[in-house]
Specification:
1247 residues; mainly alpha; 2 strands; elongated
Amino acid sequence: MTGTTPAPRRSGRERKPVESVYSDAKKVVAAASSAKKKAVSRGGGKRKRNPADEESDTSENEEDEEDDDQEGAVTASDDDEEESDSEEETTEDDGDDDDDDFEAAKPKKKASGARSTKASSKKTKIQIGKSSKSKKKQPTTPKSSTAQGKINSALSTLAKHVLPPNEEPGLKSLIAGLLSSYRPPKSSQVANFSSNVALNVTSPYTINLHSLAERVIEMHNDNPNRAQLALLNLLFRSVGGGPDTDLPMGGGVSTTTAMDENGEDQEEEETDLEHMDTEEWAELVTDLVDDMRHAPANQILLCADPLGAVHQQNALNSRGDGEGDVEEDEKKKGSKQYALGAAEFRKIYQEFWYILGYVALTEGGMATNTQQEEDDEDEEETSGSVVRLDAELVKELIGRVSELAPVGQPDVRAAAILAAISMSHAVLDQSAQLVKKMDVAKRQYKAAMKGENESKAEALKVRIDSLNRSAEDLQDVVVTNYVNGLFVHRYRDSNEHIRAMCIESLSRMTLQRPDLFLTDKYLKYFGWMLHDKDHHVRIAALNGLYQPFKAVQDAQDGKEVAPADEFLMIDKIQLGLLENVMGKFLSRIVSATKDPKPEVQEVAMKVSLMLLKNGFLDDCEDDGVWDTINQRALSERASPAVRRDALYFVFEQLEAFDDGGEGSESSERKRTQQLDAVASYAAHALTNGPIPIDKIKIEVADYIVQSLREMPEHRALVTDWSAMLRAIKDDKSATTAHNVKAGDRADVAKQRILVRMLACAAQEEVGAVADESFLNSDVDPDMANSSEKAKKASMGREHETLSIALLKALPNLLLKFKGDTDVISELACLPRFLVPTVFSLPQRKQDFMSLIKNLGEIYLSSSNEDTLDKTARSLSSLCKGNHARVTESKAQLRKVVVELRDRIVELMSSDDSTIATSAMSVVNSESEFASKSSKRRSGRKKSPRAGASPATEKTSLTDDDTRGSADADTEYSIFLNVRRLRILAKKCDLSEFFDDTNNVNQLELLCNFVCDGLKSRLRACKPVDLRVNADEETAADKLIEDGDVLGAIGKSVNEGLQLILSVTGWFFFSYQDEEDLVKNKKDLVDDMEDGDDDDSSVDDHVILRLRNRLLSLLELCFSQYIPSSDEHGDDDTTVAKHSDDQISFADYVQIAAGRTTADLRMLFPKELSDAESPLLRSVALQEDGRLVGAFVRFISAKENALRDNEMEMKENKSMPQSLLLPMGRAIANNWARGNRREAGVFLRHIA
């Protein structure tokens, strides 16, 4: 009730008549005895409409009116006798129904003694007044759905495992009633619940559970001992007990249907709980727990763990006994079904005890409800009822189950505590309703005092006192019996799930009765349990602190209240009461944002955000608190939810995110300012400390974009491309392409972060609106045919808008940041995200031409592998599809390929290089490329220029910037250009960009030239002690010792091997595609029927020639092997000493050769020797013994390095990854015809 004036009721539903508060109280004082007699004489008469409740139900819909028309509205003058006869007929009809799991809520039953008046539910039920914003929902039969169908199936399966065939739902077997509660309730149950019960339907089981709880309380009114035995049996059966462990209830045969000597059903003797002393009770419980220890796992419905994870695994193991032929997936299915059923049973169990607590209060033996018709003519006065709830009965039930709390078995403790908690919550909900009614009465009392209506004021005062006494009785039940009697002992239970359960119950109580429990006396428990060793308890404690904030926030946002939360007193929550506990435990809450468990971090971050929003951190001067929370927004170890909430936390501190800017133009300007503020924050966080500008983790900007996309109110920041591009262009303090300032590092970082955010936002947006294959169309050539469909699926308005904005801005951005490797790497990947349709727009042609031109220039000038890879992917993707600019794209890519080819030929043919002038150098002067390259050689001088290169000073073997002299510069240039060509060869077929003039395969010619050049360099670097017929001193003089040159040559060899392998693979792929050698099963059957075997062989083919050249190059790489001193025997004094650079070079090229050998063996496996195609049979790599032996020899020499799992070279951080993984791939692909020695070495290291 929310007011004093009743609103007209739209529904005709019959309700209990409630008179005005003051009039009702006056009648209670004046004529309590006569009212009680009248209530008894009326029996099960239907309640009249409640004018007071009309205030809270004015929003009921027209469906209620239709339902009420069908039920028929009756007034107080209706014949009670006729109604009673009708109810009796309904009960008899229901008894004949096939679905007899549940009987009528209150079957007609005659009882003797003082409790005879409680035989009918309609005489003891009360309707607690509800607030105007919450009304009781009309119960309906739950609709079937896929999810609920699976749950019902799981519950049915559990019932088959737990219940014996002859056990039926009822008071003798409450466990069967709970497991069968998923079945649709009878129409009589629905009608009774709708008209007489004040509970909401919170689940598909509510009506059935209410009927079952009514029967239990009805029995308790007649025979308390038997009802409590039924409840205890339910508890024991839930945690693994069976029919044999049931406590005898008497009154008939047992659930096990035991037989006497004559073969007749024998009577069971009822266990007397009332006269059982402590020792007898302890002995009884101990025996029961001992019996349940041997229960099968699939009979344990309820355990301490809410997920039932341990018992789920036990159930899977028990199913395996005697079912060895069951498939693995069937076992997993059974395990999931058990877990689903056990989780749902826990909900049912909890709801049953809650409903039981409610029914015990309202229909217990001491519960009364005296109602009088309102004779007052004042229509504005509300009517009420004198309510007395049976608090003693609930107290007795809570005490009974609490006796099991000290049991050593955790599942029993958990079941007992869960039952006590549920009943306590029911009591608090009812007390909350009494408090609300009392508040209404107090307001009416004040109004009556102002109006000088003494009689009304006196009646209201009596009414207030009555409600206050009832509320205090209920509060005493919870505080005394549960909080002081159970909670204070069990919140420190040895089982972590029980501790969490207790903390969660207290959290719920702070919302049910914040006037009682939202105080320091109880809030301190949340703070204490923040230090618990188990994360479940820490989560529960943090949730306890978070829920009051969330409840208030939801109420302010107008969110709909769930039916189960209807009675929460959200309006009574005063967040200021949390100030003391938050101040005391603030440091622990903040440290929990870095908890090892992500689940704890998420809740801790929510609490921290609520503290900031509600002003609890306004006086916090500890920078550590702010920095710890702010840094979580960029932490790669945090979950997405933590990063999102941490970014919310940051936004609360940024002025740019204050309200303002409603117009479209001002809105774009506002977003630009906000993007700049976010980037500034990230840059400051990343550069805070002595971190080099090139080492800051710009990639964490992706987390900002991902978090912004998860924020509905800020999502537009990363989809407003104009604002993002404007933020990048307007940053005047950022560095330009050729003038990198040595100023504030944060400004440089901010510019890079903005570009990274643009790239990530584009990728995320395209991934959201386009098919997944659109982004991965260039990953594998085999997927090229599916990219067309992906592009068609990606054509949306959002994608087109993004594409146009990027196409217009990218050419200028590429020029602006051409010198910044980190920025250009992010920009180079963006063309892949553009929808191809915008390329065909005439007004975008100039932008497209500028884009591909700039990409080509970047590719030819860049040395960073990441930049080269992204640029190559963009260039190759622009050459695919059927858009109007494919020809221009291919022409630009052809220019890049030809330029790289000419550079490689010129550099490798130069006469003044160290390698060319070496005595061991071999250059094929008759090579076509050698003759062609002489025409384009410049007359530049190549005198040694130490430090002339713009590269860094590092000269290690794996350093990309190895330069130290003109000779090293030349070799390094060869390496860079071979790398660029190799990266392109990985992305596309280079043969498309070579003109085969005079029937000469130009690409093959280039590969031959590169192979010869690498061979000449490897011969010049060959170890001294392996040279044949060479004088030691002469050979030592000719051996290359310069570490810079060796480093550059080693990289060139690695890149050259991969280049030739990729080109060979493309030729092989094209041949298979042209000859249609990839067969399906039908083709194979047709070929077998033809029976024409071609025994011919192929001796000359481009694939075969390239394969053989690659094999010879690999053998020369393995010939760089330098044996250790203990391999020389007695002649080690004649062996020339090798420098560390020479040893590193030898190891590097052999590792590179090992990887390429493994790839080559996978490309041409030995199984191809059985192929139908003569070429496939010819290319099968059968004679690989020398390569395998050389690699095994190298691995054996690195035994110590493998054991230590260390590697000095940064390109190969792990020796097993560099050596064992390539070998493992080759062995797996050639297992049927593999090398036993190789397999033995591999297995020895992985075993």
